[in-house]
Amino acid sequence: MKILIACEESDEVRSRFEALGFDAWSCDLQPNRNPNAKHFQCSVFDVINNGWDAMIAFPPCTHLAVSGAAWFEQKRKDGRQREGIDFFMAMINAPIEMIAVENPVGIMSKIYRKPDQIIQPYYFGDEASKKTCLWLKNLPPLYHNSQPNLFDSDVTHVGKGKFYEWESKSGLKKRMPLWFAAAKGFGGFKAAKDVSKVRSKTFPGIANAMASQWGKYMMERGIK
């Protein structure tokens, strides 16, 4: 079975599908961090019609996520938000049988539809918070530790992770997950070279759940 992991250069998801025996490829404008990965360094639209059986896509969220709402008006005016919407919808409407599209909480819940599922890293064994939406086509929702009737041995219950808290100039108390605050250089941490890469990371537990659960679902249908 041919699986495309679109807009991924970390090899977090692709490598796990490959380990299960799937013909899994990633695609991104940047090179894959794993030099041995099956990877297309190009626009996803150059390869999206290459006969894939399934695709898991991580389209850019910079102009869609509510975390950037303060800049929405300008992004609407200059066309950046429209570009992000069109990219997202191109993933949704790709001519591929099974599709999962991932994005943070953002405007696509209203412009397109509500996601099929909203998950957190701590649902799957990583002690961290990052609310993530999944839109699914012919794939089931991922089961996790908040669903005791579906509890699986490879899903471990953990806490929500630590948070960095501060007070704004206006006196409002704010907080963000410590893993992201550290990447931005808050609290005395050294800022990451590319904060956007850190912000878009797929946590290992979620990547493992995608490969093990959706991989099993595909294999049960004789697709491999």
Tell me the layout of helices and strands.
Elements: E1 2-6, H1 14-19, E2 23-28, E3 39-41, E4 54-57, H2 72-78, H3 80-92, E5 98-104, H4 108-111, E6 117-119, E7 132-137, E8 163-167, E9 173-177, H5 178-183, H6 195-199, H7 204-220
Parallel strand pairs: 1-2, 1-4, 2-3, 4-5
Antiparallel strand pairs: 5-7, 6-7, 8-9
Average pLDDT value? 85
Q: Can you give the helix content as a percent range?
A: 25-40%
Low-confidence stretches: 148-153
Order of helices and strands: EHEEEHHEHEEEEHHH
Give the overall shape: globular
Total number of helices: 7
The fraction of residues in strands falls at 15-25%
| Sheet of most strands | 7 strands, mixed
Structural class: alpha/beta
Task: Produce a short descriptive summary.
The chain has 224 residues and is an alpha/beta fold. It has helices at residues 14-19, 72-78, 80-92, 108-111, 178-183, 195-199, 204-220; strands at 2-6, 23-28, 39-41, 54-57, 98-104, 117-119, 132-137, 163-167, 173-177. The chain has 7 helices and 9 strands.
